[in-house]
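Support request from a user on the community tier.

User writes: "When I paste my C-alpha cells into the form, the page sometimes reloads and wipes my input. The last time it worked, I copied everything first. Here is what I submitted, just in case something in the input itself triggers the reload:"
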C-alpha cells in the first residue's frame, strides 16, 4: 500500500501488490524536538526537509515513518545530506535510514552516509563514507574500535546531491546499495538486534546535518 506522508511526497509501498492506490498517512513528526521537519522543493524534487538543531535540548536522530511493523524486506530512498550552515569541522552531513526501530527509538539498526567523506583527499576518510550502527549497544565508535573496517566502507558520495540508497534486510543480514549499483557497498552479516528483531522504520539524521528525503519505498518480504 502506498502512502503520501505528511507534507512531502514520500511514497511508501507496504507491498508491491498494493501499490495501485494512494491514501493519506499520519503526519511525519521527529522523535526529538531537536529535529525540525517541513516540506520543501529541493533541486526540483518535492522532499521532506529535516534539520538537526544542536542548540535545542534533545537527541538526534529519528523521524519515524508510519509504515507499521517491519522485519525483512527492502527499503529504498533518495537522500541528500550536507553539514548545516555554521556546522563544526567534524560535521559530515550524516544521513540514512533506520529499521527495526523499537520503543520510542531506544533500539534500532541503521545504515547512514557521510557525504563529505566520499571525495575527501584523505583515503582513511573515504573509507568511512558509509556506516552501519545498532543503537544503543553498538554505536559507530564501538564498532570502529572493536572491528575496524568491518561496519563501514567507501562509496562515491557528494554532499547535498541526491543519492539513491537501497537497504536489503534478511534475518540477521543486511546489504547497503548506493546509486543503483548492482553490488552492495556494505554488507553486514550479524545484525546486532538479531535475526528475529522487528520494528518501525525511520529517517535518520545525524549531528549538525541539513537533510532532504524523497521517494521512500518500503517493500516487505
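"...and here is what came back when it finally went through:"
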Amino acid at each position: 500500500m502506498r502512502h503520501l506522508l505528511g507534507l512531502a511526497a514520500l511514497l511508501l509501498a507496504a507491498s508491491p501488490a498494493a501499490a495501485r492506490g494512494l491514501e493519506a498517512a499520519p503526519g511525519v513528526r521527529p522523535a526529538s524536538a531537536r529535529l525540525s521537519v517541513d516540506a520543501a522543493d529541493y533541486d526540483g524534487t518535492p522532499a521532506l526537509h529535516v534539520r538537526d538543531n544542536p542548540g535545542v535540548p534533545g537527541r538526534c536522530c529519528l523521524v519515524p515513518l508510519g509504515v507499521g511493523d517491519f522485519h525483512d524486506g527492502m527499503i529504498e530512498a533518495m537522500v541528500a545530506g550536507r553539514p548545516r550552515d555554521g556546522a563544526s569541522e567534524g560535521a559530515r552531513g550524516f544521513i540514512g535510514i533506520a529499521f527495526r526501530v523499537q520503543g520510542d527509538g531506544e533500539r534500532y539498526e541503521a545504515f547512514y552516509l557521510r557525504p563529505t567523506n566520499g571525495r575527501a583527499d584523505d583515503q582513511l576518510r573515504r573509507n568511512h563514507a558509509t556506516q552501519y550502527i545498532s543503537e544503543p549497544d553498538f554505536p559507530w565508535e564501538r564498532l570502529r574500535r572493536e572491528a575496524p573496517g568491518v561496519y563501514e566502507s567507501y562509496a562515491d558520495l557528494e554532499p547535498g546531491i541526491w543519492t539513491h540508497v537501497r537497504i536489503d534486510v534478511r534475518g540477521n543480514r543486511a546489504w547497503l546499495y548506493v546509486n543503483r549499483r548492482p553490488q552492495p557497498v556494505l554488507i553486514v552479516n550479524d545484525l546486532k538486534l538479531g535475526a528475529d528483531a522487528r520494528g518501525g522504520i525511520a529517517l535518520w539524521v545525524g549531528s549538525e546535518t541539513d537533510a532532504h528525503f524523497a521517494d521512500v519505498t518500503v517493500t516487505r518480504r
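Agent notes: The reload is a front-end session timeout and is unrelated to the input. The longest helix spans residues 140-146. Confidence is low (pLDDT under 50) at residues 1-9, 11-26. Escalated to web team.
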